[in-house]
User: Fold these one by one.
Assistant:
Number 1:
Amino acid sequence: MFKRGIGDTTDIVEKEMFVFDDKGGEKLALRPEGTASIVRAYIENKLYSSSNLSKYYYYGPMFRRERPQKGRFRQFTQVGVEVFGSNAPAVDAEVMKTMSEIFDKSGISNLVKLNINSLGCPDCRPDYRKKLISFLNSKRKNLCEDCKNRLEKNPLRVLDCKLESCKAEVVDAPLMIDNLCPTCFEHFEDVKGFLNHFGVNYEINPFMVRGLDYYVRTAFEFTTDFLGASNAVGGGGRYDGLIKTLGGPDIPGIGYAIGVDRLVALMMEKKVEIGKRLKVFIIFFKDTMEDGFYLIDKLRSENITTIFDYEIGSLKSQFKKADKSGADIAIIVGSDEKERGIYTIKNMRNGTQKEIKKELIINEIKNITSIGGI
Ligand code: HAM
């Protein structure tokens, strides 16, 4: 499945896949990526029969036998999305928009850059491929050994060789984006237009080819300058023929995967605080126990971190415990509050206090959470 899906002349399949025979003599591979597997599940379960457009996401470990270095591991984690059923350019743009939102929300958007390219289709790529091979043959003697091998088998890959010496040789190479057929040209124009509508910044990088052979038309990659040679934080593209190649109907698809290890490394680089949640301490007494537990339950059911004093001590000792626990807010449920149908909220950071009507408490706490704490 991976050989057919990703392509047998790709580095992933040729050099990096962990393949072995199990005790029953069956050939197994540790999955190097998720797309081919999702496509197989889609075909096997005939998921196309229930909906014209299907959107999936996945998260999990992947395995590639690469040389380990900063940001490059033999086991790493990807989170990915795949959309099946539409070849409309707006889908390409929306998919990239979701990816850029993930980087935004992770607080690293200024450390990454979106590169886009069009890789053409089975109509226009073969002619371009010939042009490229003849250009590369004229540069052959100056290319690295890997590129000499790629030249006939997978010439497009020569364009994104990381070696400076090869980069210098291909600066004048013919480019796919200058050789697109009218349909691919229009598709690429529309994708760029929709990206502008979505407010997503991008750069056209005609040398970006991606390491998997299933792509047609749109290919994209978010890169960074902060992770040494492992500069791709996530990438993807359109793969309209893949479902058919793997034995399913002719349904188009597009998707991407983000390298979670690299994303986290960037967040650490920028010291982005993750998982910081508001902590609420409920102060109540023996005579207001019912109200206290009711409120604890209500806040917890809203997924708000809520704690209280198991000893149900005096007001003073409960405040001390609230302080020690690192709570951001204390809510006092005393007999006076109970009688008046209110709660007293104390901001534990600056000591200010206010009263709030009982029925408004959840909203109040949610507002505080949504603006990122107090
Ligand atoms: P990929 O570019 O091979 O695409 O991998 C996606 C991301 O996984 C990379 O940008 C990188 O962040 C991360 N990654 C890859 N290899 C390693 C490694 N050895 N160590 C750490 N992180 C790594 C795919 O896998 C396609 N399946 C994406 C896709 C989905 N295209 C369409 N749908």
Number 2:
Amino acid sequence: MSKYITTPIYYVNGEAHIGHAYTTFIADTIARYERLKGERTYFLTGTDEHGQKIEESAQKNNKPTQEFANEISATFKSLWDEFDIGYDKFIRTTDEDHKIGVQKAFETMYAKGDIYKDFYEGHYCVSCETFFPETQLIDGEFCPDCGRTTNVVKEESYFFRLSKYEDKLLAYYEDHPDFVLPRSRINEVKNFVKGGLRDLSVTRTSFTWGVKMPKSFDDDKHVMYVWLDALLNYITALGYGKDEANMDYWPASIQLVGKDILRFHAIYWPAFLMSLELPLPKHIGAHGWWTRDGEKMSKSKGNVIAPKEVADAYGAENLRYFMLREVPFGQDGDFSQRAFIDRINSELSNDLGNLLNRIIGMSGKYSEFNINSVDVLKYHKKELTKMNEVLDSLDVLMENLQTHRYLEELWKLFAIGNKAIEEHAPWVKMKENKKDEALATVALIANILARASVMLHPVMPNTTNTIADALNFEINNNSYKKFILDKNMLEPFVIKKVPPLFPRVEELLIPEAPRAEPNSLKDTPKENKQVLAEEDNLIEIGQFFETSLQVGTIVEALEVPKSKKLLKLQVDLGEENVKQIVAGIKEFYTTEDLLGTQACVVANLKPAKLMGMLSEGMLLAAKDEDGLCLVRPEKFKKPGTPIG
Ligand code: ME8
């Protein structure tokens, strides 16, 4: 079975930042991992170059649109080359072959009756390249996703019958609970579909920068909607609509996206594929959002961090390691130089780098750099068993995109190695004339490093090649089989000296991000609010609504034995939904004070355990030097009434 891995194609309205780099790093790591395992693998990335947003950016830069797109697309390509991203194809949506494929798909959907012509009147957000019904707008005017002003557009348009696929999509999600990874994210997708899907306008007449209609339509007024055009890149890259040369890679094994574009990939894209009668991707992997020093990155704030700048200062592969180690897949992450430096110094330099230096040093002193595994099993059975346990636990973690766990687990190998050195103290054994034992420990470490470098290779390809070179082998599918699957030991060899792989970092190597001054929104005209939102790291309205706040009635309140602070409450949120909430409010309320009263509840909080008791939500409270009080509705409201 072959593996097909994709990144989103990036808009060419600005240069790449570390958020883009993160998606690409994960995809590259997975592709390299699959290749290492000997899978036939195809890895696609590229740029998304059509649509009004790009047209407007080119105009702002006083450049012809194609020239502007060429320039920015080239910056992405050369950045990925700097990072040694091993893509098999870099697609551009302005490629002729892509356009042919999109037209072919459009014709196929039309022939099937899934595309029809009508009029569209709606509110269009250029930034999101999306229409919104009036009911979804904020203050009747602003985009619910990004907060920018929308424009009223009335256009003749071709529509895709998205509504027809509502039930099929829901059934598909039910049957494939791991279609979206992490699995928890499928709920927001399902809720969106359950809310009702409207047919999707898939052409535009208000601008021209897009894929033209197929000739057979003789309808030059229209160009394709950028999301239809863009999503189809995943199959046109394989030759769809043209020579179909690589279509046997389809369906994709994993399509990586940021959580911002999950809806497009988990709803529109599968519906398009159903219409084209093509299989659906195995997984859509939606990762979280990166901030810098806790703040959203934006050009206006001047805190966007260029991957190349970080790579030049700290090392390209160190950055890959940091980003993949720092964040559980799916969760948001923060780029801070201090956290980065900590990981370089403690994990890369101390745990890994030192281990290699130590065996180079010891083998130099004890055996003229000769390393022989002959006695390892005799003296280090315990360590070998543990090592093999770690190695066997890794595959499932990578297959589930848990790169942080994968690396955490892999690092246990270095702990095993360092502990063995401390316990066996080869320098003491040499003094005691137990040279065999001393050399066995050195060889154990060499074997640990060999296996670790094979498994770390997808994350740090060049660094691990250097380690493997020092250990006299090459990292490829053969060595994967030999060391990881068959668990063979290294043949006798002479270790090479290598300069320290991870020099310690003692200070910040790039200037810190400028910090935003606190600002008041109170008197700001509406149209400037979005700009301020970016500048001040304010959240968008949609982010606020990610929190489900509801009115709840406290129907039971109990003291928690031995706890000075906690009360155990049962809170009724209506429709037989009673949540247990363990709240730290005992110093301020008695159980009688609370019984039958109402409070505001954060209803979609992940359950947590407090003193061994499950707590499924949180009560809103305000606390100052005079104490704490609950935040409550002014009048009695039905349990479960949403707040917002
Ligand atoms: O959406 N943190 O392109 P785009 C994490 N062209 N990831 C981030 C990020 C951040 N701060 N910022 C961007 C588009 N990304 C469309 C895609 S696909 C058919 C069309 C990453 O240039 C993340 O993967 O806005 C996000 O989904 C992608 O860049 C969006 O890039």
